[in-house]
Design brief:
Length: 382
């Protein structure tokens, strides 16, 4: 497949497949005698797009004339903004001919989305506020149109072929391993993604509202939310007792915003996620998280694997990799003597060690069902 650039003007239907999509956001001339900056932007995109596949460029100007129906225009722009992999903001503001009032609003809606670039001539007035938030959120910036186009295409790279409802998943989500694993499972089940919209994103955490055709039921299921974050490595530490109820178990207590427990803390197995090379080895990741959250350093070889599963399959696509280790009496004594706090303070993490028995944990209601389930799996497998 060769390179192709398809321009979609205001109120025109997007194609049903592409490798990348860019929306040209910025001021539109108010009168026909004022030239638009967008034809030059399209020319730059045509000249620079050399990857196999189709690049779609959304131009919020009518192909032949100014749009007539304001409501239809706004709805088209909203739809295509959400379809775009990158929203290219170029703001050659002129207070008389292109004041860019609507651009200010759009920038406020998209500046922290993780898929915008910002450009403006150095002498364009009233852009300081926009530049401030570009700097604050690490948005790529440029002082001219070619540089702005280059910044957008650098983030897009070669894009990724998508069709149908897949086109609604922007590259910053599409390229993540959790999305590909979730989507791969859905396709293996025969289900089809009919549409999607990013409703939230923070770093490598994201939430999609998805519309799926459920093959087994031959129906469309709408407004499902798929939440994801990097996978976690979790360790169940225990010391066998005379009975399962008497078995000593180790948890950590940590403040988490969603907790609805009497003390406002979660009571869970030590564990967490990682970035970079450590994330590729769940056992090493679990051992490192155990050390951070409890101070107990164990050789990763001591951690026995129990597999991986979703934690909350009705909401979250990420998985927990469960490991366990039976600890010695001296190790248990060290944990009792160093209850905390532990954790990575720079990340706002503060954990305290809690030592109890499996029976007491079943009865006191402090741990959630996921924690109880993982702990039960580890102890049953022992």
């Amino acid at each position: 497949m060769g390179s192709e650039v398809v321009v979609v003007h205001a109120r025109e239907e997007p194609p049903d497949a592409w490798s990348a999509a860019v929306f040209l956001a910025g001021p539109t001339p108010r009168t026909p005698d004022v030239p638009s900056w967008r034809p030059e932007a399209v020319g730059e995109l045509r000249a620079r797009w050399r990857h196999p596949g189709r690049l779609v460029v959304f131009v919020p100007e009518h192909r032949h004339d100014r749009y007539e129906d304001y409501t239809d225009q706004v709805e088209w722009e909203e739809r295509c903004l959400h379809l775009s992999d990158e929203v290219l903001f170029y703001v050659p503001r002129d207070l008389k001919t292109m004041p860019a009032f609507t651009t200010n609003v759009e920038w406020g809606m998209w500046h922290d989305s993780g898929r915008v670039v910002f450009g403006a001539p150095p002498d364009a007035p009233k852009n300081s506020y926009l530049r401030h938030y570009a700097d604050k959120y690490g948005v790529p910036t440029a002082g001219d149109l070619p540089g702005t186009v280059a910044a957008a295409l650098e983030r897009i790279g070669a894009g990724a072929p998508r069709s149908g409802g897949e086109c609604a998943v922007p590259l910053l989500v599409w390229r993540t391993e959790p999305f590909q694993r979730w989507y791969g499972a859905q396709r293996a089940a025969g289900n089809t993604l009919c549409g999607a919209r990013v409703v939230w994103r923070h770093g490598d955490h994201w939430a999609l509202r998805v519309r799926m055709h459920v093959a087994a039921e031959d129906r469309i299921k709408d407004n499902e939310i798929v939440l994801s974050r990097p996978d976690v490595g979790v360790v169940a530490l225990y010391r066998r007792g005379a009975t399962l109820d008497d078995t000593t178990v180790v948890l950590v207590r940590e403040f988490r915003g969603p907790a609805a427990t009497p003390d406002g803390f979660v009571h869970e197995l030590p564990g967490g996620s990682a970035r970079g090379p450590r994330a590729a080895d769940p056992r090493a990741m679990a051992a490192a998280e155990l050390a951070e959250e409890t101070g107990l350093v164990l050789d990763a070889a001591r951690l026995r694997p129990h597999g991986e599963r979703q934690l909350t399959a009705t909401l979250s696509a990420h998985r927990a990799h469960l490991f366990s280790a039976e600890i010695t009496e001296p190790e248990l004594a060290r944990l009792r003597a160093a209850a905390g706090p532990h954790g990575v303070a720079a990340d706002g993490e503060r954990t305290h060690i809690e030592i109890t028995t499996f029976g007491a944990l079943l009865r006191d209601g402090s741990a959630d069902w996921s924690t109880l389930g993982m702990l039960t799996q580890a102890l049953v497998d022992d």
